[in-house]
5-methylthioadenosine/S-adenosylhomocysteine deaminase (Paenibacillus aurantiacus), 866 residues
Amino acid sequence: MNRLWIENGTFVTMDDNQPLVRGHMVVENDRITYIGEAAPSPAPEGAERINGRGLVFMPGLINTHAHSAMSLLRGYSDDEALQVWLQDKMWPMEGKFNDDDAHWGNALAVIEMLKSGTTTFVDMYDRMPILAKVVEQSGMRGVLTRGVIGLCSPAEQTAKLEEAKQFAKDWNGQANGRIRTMLSPHAPYTCPPDYIERIVAAAHELNVPLHTHMSESAAEVQQNVNDYGTRPVEHLDKLGFFSRPSLVAHAVHLNDEEIALLAERGVAISHNPASNLKLASGVARVPDLLRAGVTVSLGTDSAASNNNLDLFDEIRIAALIHKGVSGDPTAIPAIEALRMGTVYGARAIWQADEIGALKTGMKADFIAINTEQPHFYPQTDIVSHLVYSGSGRDVQHVWVDGRQVVKSGVCTLLDEEQIMAEAQRAFEGLLAR
Amino acid sequence: MNRLWIENGTFVTMDDNQPLVRGHMVVENDRITYIGEAAPSPAPEGAERINGRGLVFMPGLINTHAHSAMSLLRGYSDDEALQVWLQDKMWPMEGKFNDDDAHWGNALAVIEMLKSGTTTFVDMYDRMPILAKVVEQSGMRGVLTRGVIGLCSPAEQTAKLEEAKQFAKDWNGQANGRIRTMLSPHAPYTCPPDYIERIVAAAHELNVPLHTHMSESAAEVQQNVNDYGTRPVEHLDKLGFFSRPSLVAHAVHLNDEEIALLAERGVAISHNPASNLKLASGVARVPDLLRAGVTVSLGTDSAASNNNLDLFDEIRIAALIHKGVSGDPTAIPAIEALRMGTVYGARAIWQADEIGALKTGMKADFIAINTEQPHFYPQTDIVSHLVYSGSGRDVQHVWVDGRQVVKSGVCTLLDEEQIMAEAQRAFEGLLAR
């Protein structure tokens, strides 16, 4: 049995019963078996001992909306309108992607996320077995789904859906349960209603959750009204989408009725503030969603629209923007923003009993932050410091499922230098083709 | 003569004549004497040679609004309304500050700024000789001003103004010209009109610029209208404020006429987006200000309202927020945000002929960023990467006035460990008193 004993650490647990622990944590194999102020008694035999002095430990961050392969397009197109960026820049380049490109783009995203403290991520894209293998190798935790766009022939629609189902079946529960799967129509505006209904039926058949993009831009909401006579929330609801556990990304443009319906249906939101700002999509009504009881988690979206995968950035932006835009400086206090990146993230992917907090019996997914730096001084309110002053670059060590996957800032299971070099080569290949 | 020769570097110069140089830069004493793609010829004799591979060099960042000593209050009070935060939390604690507190708060801010790539900062506070000595020792460049609050007896007003004048006289041009000074009424709402007029007269007498807080919150603008029958811009203009070179912080709440007047008077703005969001002050009309020809620079404000002094954060937030709030994804493109943190910052403090760009003849204030990290890959648009993906933690080396003040992430002229420990002690002392 692998045992790890962290001594003299400061633990921001995200567990309301003991939010801050200055003391000890013991991990046995993939689980936390002890956390408390007193030293564990008896002392865990044969444990690897880590001196936690100068480190703050907290749950690994959960990124609930990403498109990892698109990291290959970071910086390729910025400061353009959503539809121009998507249709004129992203789609033509993505159309050229081959398996090799997908592999290195995915690997680049995974090392960036791990090094910046994200231990679990949701990813919607294609060529998903390639990503699943990277996730398996990296030690990371992922909820993966083959997103399907239905603007194609019925035969192609069927082929894509079969591919998505096959992936969801093949990989659900793999890698010691670190990989789970979902099904995903890309968006209401890229999937005809009957296709969405088929995907919903398949999700029931496979007993997996659903993920989609929804109400990211005002134009898209208007198009939904024009095409189907309803706004996207009601539209998806009528198609039975919310009869499955559902995670929807963006949800920027919602009216009060839609918020109430999302709350009633138990739909979780992936709020992507940096991407929404950068693409000028707007500012989601997060304080209203939280007040209504909706689970709001955080996502980076892709590195092509952000342009980084540091979830600490999303946490800080979420804590700042809703104050500034609402005029209420008490909106989204620091602890609530941190919850969005941890416990609420875990809820949004139906794993709150396993991850998102440091608690006896839960999975040992956690990170250690080097707080011996000027921007963490004086050491007053640790949660405030993490949210308003912290960064993924402050992450020193990362463990997932009890295994150390980042040690002193370096990925232990993936070759960072090779991945950066190959990603560069792949990008230059895309430009040349 | 001290000579430095950087070979094989990538230089983001912020000089429109050659924005991107892949090549060489030579520094002699405090000045850049060569920058170009070809190796310098003849080779600079006896130069310290630096291999620039894997590094991006750019001008040091310019933070045009800070209150360094307040770093001691980082995390002491968050998520409160501006007036509550200021009057109930900050002022009582600041009232307890002694020279020792000011020293360690200032030193803490200076090491945080230097390590994150800021080479020049504007600071308005009291006990300014203490800060000036820290700046002198640190090797940093500063524009320092004793901010005065006039809500006190005439005798106290006079004493404060004399202190401010004395400081401005004593320190202007000190530390090889690295320190310059200004005069500063704290704000129109904390200084009676006749006191502002006396400060303006003193600025003329000493030939120094003026700095103040202006139109940070809507409430403050309304109070100005109630008290004086005019909005703050017209009020200050009538008091002769803009007859001096002027830098105003915040300027969140402006109407079209005020923007036109600021442009006409050549007033520079210090835009503090993180602080304005955190205190729910609102979002400044930066795209409109830039269109009107106003110089807009960036400031962190204090670590008590931000809560970090990483100017890369302000650059990214400035690039993101104005897109999201205006609905225009082309608002504040990456390069414009980077200008706000460099060349526009230099303009805002009337030093654009000396700093803010890498150019032959200019002061050697520059930073080196480690781009051999996943979040900078693939290496496509460097400016986009710096703005949307960069962080102060990526800064590896910093030079000011040709002298290396940060080497491999560590301050060379200040003792970081001592400063963090003493800042902690000072904060705990404040709590105990």
Q: What stands out?
A: Chain B has a mean pLDDT of 97. Chain B has two domains: 3-59+357-411, 64-348. Chain B touches chain A through 72 residues (CB under 8 Å).
